Amino acid sequence: NAGVMQNPRHLVRRRGQEARLRCSPMKGHSHVYWYRQLPEEGLKFMVYLQKENIIDESGMPKERFSAEFPKEGPSILRIQQVVRGDSAAYFCASSPDRAGRPQHFGDGTRLSIL
Amino acid sequence: DQQVKQNSPSLSVQEGRISILNCDYTNSMFDYFLWYKKYPAEGPTFLISISSIKDKNEDGRFTVFLNKSAKHLSLHIVPSQPGDSAVYFCAASEGGTSYGKLTFGQGTILTVHP
User: Which end of chain A is less enclosed by CB atoms within 10 A, N or C?
Assistant: First the structure.
């Protein structure tokens, strides 16, 4: 019973490097969402994707951040030239095509910037 | 601009008693609400949801109440158990389903004492 799978669970990067976070949705789910949680805060929406399409990226920072959900393979959240402020827990969620079904979350990737 | 607010950072309850977690929202376009539970180092787990066409939804020990005129919802847990100790987040979306962006509150830490 595979849930939403995220890897890596922990990622350490130095300032200026690139971070790639992966998310495999639950079987049968074609909607993927990325959220970020800063310390002592709630989750903040970043982006909503369906296969090969970005549906809503209103929460994505304008620069350095990008997301994709290709026809084959996991969804990728990419952060270029990371800065200390990017340190956070990044959660991926997925939901099926049927309306009224809740989003199910993975266990997150904890990104630390040195 | 915090559109979903959980004003109590923490709540402490005795085992067997009722836990009541509160959530307020400001965006009148929100019409679908969810509660998630989160343990440390794990992703949020869906608990219960409610559509704005209802004012109550019940699932086992969990009941969610919605007061649209007051823009307020609450989660009741009866009876509370030590395993319920976790961070509880309320979340809201527009469009009547959980598709798309969820807006989360800051969370309430629930501690249930044996």
Answer: N
